[in-house]
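R.M. (postdoc): so does anyone remember the format we settled on? I'll just put the C-alpha cells first.
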C-alpha cells in the first residue's frame, strides 16, 4: 500500500520465498526495485540478496529488517544492497526513505551512514552516462547492446568506454569492472 501511494501505476509482485523471488526476477527482467526482508521463513535474506543480485543486476535491492546493528547493515551493503530501511521507522519515514531510494539515493539507518560503501572521495569522478555504460559492461553486455539499451550510437558507447579506461587507469573491460567494484562505483 505504501509503494502505491508513491507510484500508483507501479506493478507490485510478492514472493513467499527466495525461489519465488528468483522466478519473478526471470519472468520480469525489467524489475527496478526489490524490497527484501532479511528474516525470511526458513531462509536467510543475506544469501538471497546475492542470488537476486546475480540474476537481476539492474534491480535496486532495499533491505527491510528489524535489525539495525552496524555489522548487519555493512554486510548487506557489501553484498550489493543499495539501501537499508529498518522496520522500526514510522510509515511516513518509510515512505520518505523509499522515495529517496526511488530517486536514486541511498538510505541507511541513522548512525550507519558512514558504512555506506559508496564511492570513496579519492575515486575517479565519472559522469552519470559513464556510470551507466560501466554498469552495462559489468552485466556483460556487448557494445551494440549497451548502445541499444542507452539509446546511443555504438561510436558514442565506444568513446565512453575509452574514456572509462583512461579515467580508471585500466586497459580492458575486466580491469574496469574489477576496479569499479573495488571503488564501489555504482550507477546513479
Amino acid at each position: 500500500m505504501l509503494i502505491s501511494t508513491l507510484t500508483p501505476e507501479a506493478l507490485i509482485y510478492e514472493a513467499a520465498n527466495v525461489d519465488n523471488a528468483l522466478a519473478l526476477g526471470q519472468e520480469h527482467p525489467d524489475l527496478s526495485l526489490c524490497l527484501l526482508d532479511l528474516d525470511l521463513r526458513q531462509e536467510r535474506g543475506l544469501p538471497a540478496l546475492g542470488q537476486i543480485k546475480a540474476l537481476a543486476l539492474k534491480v535496486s535491492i532495499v533491505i527491510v529488517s528489524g535489525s539495525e546493528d552496524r555489522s548487519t547493515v555493512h554486510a548487506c551493503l557489501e553484498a550489493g544492497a543499495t539501501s537499508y530501511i529498518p522496520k522500526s521507522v514510522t510509515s511516513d519515514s518509510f515512505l520518505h526513505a523509499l522515495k529517496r531510494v526511488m530517486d536514486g539515493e541511498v538510505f541507511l539507518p541513522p548512525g550507519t551512514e558512514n558504512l555506506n560503501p559508496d564511492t570513496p572521495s579519492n575515486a575517479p569522478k565519472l559522469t552519470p552516462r559513464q556510470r551507466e555504460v560501466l554498469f552495462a559492461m559489468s552485466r556483460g553486455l556487448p557494445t551494440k547492446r549497451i548502445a541499444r539499451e542507452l539509446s546511443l550510437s555504438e561510436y558514442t558507447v565506444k568513446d565512453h568506454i575509452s574514456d572509462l579506461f583512461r579515467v580508471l587507469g585500466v586497459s580492458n573491460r575486466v580491469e574496469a569492472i574489477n576496479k569499479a567494484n573495488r571503488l564501489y562505483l555504482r550507477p546513479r
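R.M.: ...and that's the designed sequence above, right after the C-alpha cells. Also worth knowing: Residues 39 and 174 are 35 Å apart (CA to CA). The longest strand covers residues 60-65.
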